Amino acid sequence: MDIKQKLKEDIVCISRMLHRKNYLAATDGNVSVRLGDLVFVTPSGVNKGLMEAYQVLTVDLEGKLLSGEGKPTSEIRMHLLAYKLRPDVGAVVHAHLPYATACTLAGIDLLEPVLPEVVITLGGIPTAPYATPGSDEVPEAVRDYLRDYDAILLSRHGAMTVGRDVTDAYNKMEKLEHTARVILAARLQGPLPPLPPVEVEKLQRLREEYKRRG
Ligand SMILES: [Zn+2]
């Protein structure tokens, strides 16, 4: 199988995982992968649980459609910005995570260092301010966070993750939703104590090691 076909099949596989895990509903969410000057991306209006590889579109780094039938996702600008700002990024995933989105509605900040695993692997999960979905406001809202974070919550909307490949970006999405579930469950019992600063420092050192290992 040629590399382009393989990447399209990877997008289909991850889209189906997102749907199966209830990380999005129906046609929500979008997935893209970069290969040099090309970006393979999910089309607008297709159920992610039913999508097939021939429906994955190819665009250039400006979002111009190069091949495929249909319209690229309305959130394409958020994906293109990630590729522009971060040459290390090879894939972007956007989903409407139920628990993580609930955290943004409830005003719960996942940037607070509460769980050690999150500090090491993601460095924290910031929440970008509210932006109209599908508009130019979305890339502007995430721009400042994208430089330092691989997993970003979008207020009242969902989440965006980036990774070296589509599995890496998906894994961060799964971690994000898992974190939100733990935090929401704990919040039912009362306020959450953050980790003490001395423990956060130790975890940040481990994070540097984690990043070096890739
Ligand atoms: Zn969305």
- Tell me, what is the CATH class? Alpha Beta
Q: How much strand content do the residues show? A: 15-25%
Radius of gyration: 17 Å
Average pLDDT confidence is 95
> What is the molecular shape?
globular
Number of helices: 7
Instruction: Please name the CATH architecture.
Output: 3-Layer(aba) Sandwich
Please identify the structural class as seen in this structure: alpha+beta
SSE string, helix = H, strand = E? HEEEEHEHHEHEEHH
Each distinct ligand: zinc ion
Q: In whole angstroms, how far apart are the ends? A: 27 Å
Largest sheet: 8 strands, mixed
**CATH homologous superfamily (4th level) name:** Class II aldolase/adducin N-terminal domain
User: pLDDT under 50 segments (min length 5)?
Assistant: none
Order the strands across the largest sheet as they lie in space.
4-3-2-1-5-8-7-6
Q: Share of helix among residues? A: 40-55%
Tell me the number of structural domains.
1
